[in-house]
Amino acid sequence: LGLGFRDYLDDCLCDTKTIDSFNNGKLFPVLHQLLQTDYFRFYKVNLNKPCPFWAEKNRCGMRNCAVKPCKPVNVQNDCDNENHTEISLSRKLALFCSEKTRQAILEWKRYDDKEDYFCLLDDEDSPDSQYVDLLLNPERFTGYKGAEAWKIWNSIYEENCFKPYTVTRPLSPMTAYARKEFYRWLEELCVEKRAFYRLISGLHTSINVHLCARYLLAGEYKYKPYKWGHNLSEFQQRFDEDLTKGEGPKRLRNLYFIYLIELRALSKVLPFFEQPSVQLYTGQAEQDKQIKKMLLQLLRSFPLHFDEGALFTGDKDEAAHLKEDFKRKFRNITRIMDCVDCLKCRLWGKLQTQGLGTALKILFSEHQIEALPKSGSSKTNFQLTRQEIISLFNAFGRISTSIREIENFRSILRNISLEK
Ligand code: FAD
């Protein structure tokens, strides 16, 4: 199964320098600008779903775990107003809740191929769902750690990464023997299962890079303003070759792996966004045009190649079975996110798993995307919902930012050694 994919994994990832220079110099600045726009910054999410797997003990009460949802606004007054040229932020939020927009989203949803969802989408009509301004709630250090956080990571790896229970857990400090066993197990997995593990590990790396890069360095509630910044020793403890006995660099490589998978999904979905009928609706025609132009420019600038066709290409029955298994496990992970106590971590965890699920949906919908008519007719069986689009780009934005932050940490280290 999938030799091309194995080569890709083992060879291309060595060339992280090419990815660094492409991401940090070219892609990141444009993507960053795109994610500041109204379309991409408001994410509708249900953060109040109960954990389906175990009884939640306590919701994390730490200040840094809190999420600021969009303020409620008087929706009704804005609904009928077609002339929204000068619109305040709160009125823009109202537009997202307006009947017109809700209808547009429902229309998109009707076309969605539900069978192809990798993630369980939050019920958009649920009264518990709310719009969250992602720019007001940046992913950063929250203080969420210890047994609660480990329980989540444990469940994700042990129950969802095709991992037999008999294999030593990677989460506990590993003896040399346990480490050998773990990597033997990983090597023996078929390429798809290994890819799945690497995606999850890459996501884990990204979350941890963010908390190191936007660490709470100083400050006290009410008395001194918070100061956020790079925490080099935290980063080294997690990723340094010696301190992690070689685990850190492997985890960083998994970050590059998830980056390439999501990048490829984005380049593959270009024909979908090229359809004139696909709108990135914010309620302001000029702004919508600009956002779409920016998005198309970004997607057309990707030069990298990736042969994910090598996935699920072996024996037909086995391949179909694996693909279903892949989907099921991914859905399960999205449900585990409802068990994350820290709401800020839950928000970004949900967004990033939904974004990754959307990337996988794209990669496995190659034929449907190729069949998309250039004419602008919407009669195709490949669709993306607003939530999927927002999560796809924001999730990729997180990974892209992590890659840039690694470069920042490297340059901090270089400066320190120059000063010595
Ligand atoms: P953890 O990161 O908890 O890891 C547990 C064990 O997993 C490690 O001991 C190691 O053996 C293994 N491991 C670590 N990294 C990897 C990897 N990349 N691949 C494979 N195995 C690995 N904290 C914040 O401050 N801000 C956030 O926004 C945030 N978001 C989170 C979102 C989710 C969904 C979860 C589950 C946690 C989040 N956390 C966040 C917590 C954070 O990820 C860590 O769990 C926490 O900082 C404790 O770190 P740790 O060093 O104990 O190891």
Summarize the structure.
With 420 residues, this protein is mainly alpha-helical. The protein has helices at 3-11, 16-35, 38-41, 75-79, 89-97, 99-111, 146-160, 176-188, 191-213, 232-239, 247-268, 270-274, 285-300, 316-336, 343-363, 366-370, 386-419; strands at 42-46, 129-133, 215-220, 224-229. The protein is globular, with a radius of gyration of 22 Å.
What can you see in these coordinates?
- Its cofactor is FAD.
- FAD binds at residues 140, 142, 153, 201, 204, 238.
- There is one protein chain.
- With 420 residues, this protein is mainly alpha-helical.
- The chain is built from 17 helices and 4 strands.
- The strands form 2 sheets. Strands 1-2 form a two-stranded antiparallel ribbon. The chain has a two-stranded antiparallel ribbon with strand order 3-4.
- Residues 1-14, 71-98 and 111-115 have low confidence and may be disordered.
- Bound molecules: flavin-adenine dinucleotide.
- Residues 139, 141-142, 144-145, 149-150, 152-153, 170-171, 201, 204-205, 207-208, 211, 251, 340, 344-345, 348-349 line the site of flavin-adenine dinucleotide.
Properties at a glance:
420 residues, 58% helix, binds flavin-adenine dinucleotide, two-stranded antiparallel ribbon, mainly alpha, 4 strands
